Amino acid sequence: MNVACPQCKTVFRVDPRKVPTEGVRARCSVCGGVFEVVSEGQGPAAAAGAPLPAASGGPAPSRPAPAPPPRPEPAAPAPPQPQPAPQPQAPGGRPFGQPDPDARARRLARALISDVAAYHPERQETGLREGRLKELFQEELKKSWQEYVEQVGLDVARSTPYFRDALNEILAKGKKVF
Amino acid sequence: MSMINYASREINCKIVYYGPGLGGKTTNLEYIYNKVAPSTRGKLISLATETERTLFFDFLPVDLGTIRGFKTRFHLYTVPGQVYYNASRKLILKGVDGVVFVADSQVERLDANIEAMHNLYENLAEYGYDLRQIPFVIQYNKRDLPNVSPVDELDRHLNPDRVPAYEGVATKGVGVFDTLKAVAKLVIKSLG
């Protein structure tokens, strides 16, 4: 059966025998989003943002996933038929490099802030020297944060330190300004 | 996707220069533009908004021969590199025949390079293309700067499939034509 990630729309081929009748939670190996897969007789994958059953008992994700909207359950004894993160179907669906959503969020944050610093080296120096980084980069940081949230989701953006870390490490050159 | 012009007996191929912001894509294109014979090239067009810029021109190399009697005209494009201009990047990739990834070799831009490479894969995948299947080369630019990552480290992060990769100093033209020739050859091979 085919299952589409409600967030990034990637389509995966899933062995229907591995989907229990009560459904199962799966993590998209492309965008890292967690969604519910129901068996073929019960309709398509849950819509984006639909609350997942609190006690679905589905297999715990293979790694702790910051994923909108609900958090993965605490690692419980794994029930049978764990659903591995589905692999994208061809064509062209190869996830380049590290597919880990945590690593992706961290890299995105660093790339965004690295862009800000690269495009405005003089302003960065002034901001550092005069302690006005926040003020001088208000517009760029707002834009970067919006892009970050759009790509990784508000939950991940707020619950992880990656954006702030990137600000301090890259824009503030290691000082704890943000 | 190459377009054939029967009237002028030309095959038109689109090559996109991709990569992080300020990595040297525009510098590559400008260098090429200034070196190719004016009679063989079109205008250098800059589609610039307040914040982003795309550069474009086409030219007809004289030394590449013909494919079944057709000459090959290359259309070179750059994309805006900053993370948040993805809509433009994606649009420009449409119908691409070959890709050059211009990486910024500076240590502090490594994350931006990797992010741009992921973004390239993702955008191509959304058009149904696989980067492993289309002509693709990498240029490690800015090799003259003091704070650059070693090439083998860049290869490890950016070039797992070991596509042709060239060291460049685009401001001086170093590696610019090596890179272009490499991708052009791959494009022509893919047509033939």
Automatic annotation (TrEMBL), chain A:
Residues 42-109 are annotated as: Disordered. Residues 61-89 have a biased composition (Pro residues). Residues 1-35 form the Zinc finger/thioredoxin putative domain. InterPro entries: Znf/thioredoxin_put. Residues 42-60, 90-99 have a biased composition (Low complexity). NCBIfam families: MJ0042_CXXC. This is Zinc finger/thioredoxin putative domain-containing protein. It comes from Candidatus Kutchimonas denitrificans.
UniProtKB/TrEMBL annotation, chain B:
SUPFAM superfamilies: P-loop containing nucleoside triphosphate hydrolases. InterPro entries: Gliding_Motility_GTPase (IPR052705), P-loop_NTPase (IPR027417), Small_GTPase_ARF/SAR (IPR006689). This is Gliding-motility protein MglA. CDD domains: Ras_like_GTPase (cd00882). The keyword Protein biosynthesis does not apply. The keyword Nucleotide-binding applies. One of its GO terms (molecular function) is GTP binding. PANTHER family: ATP/GTP-BINDING PROTEIN-RELATED, GLIDING MOTILITY PROTEIN MGLA. Keywords: GTP-binding, Nucleotide-binding. It comes from the Bacteria. It holds the Pfam family Arf.
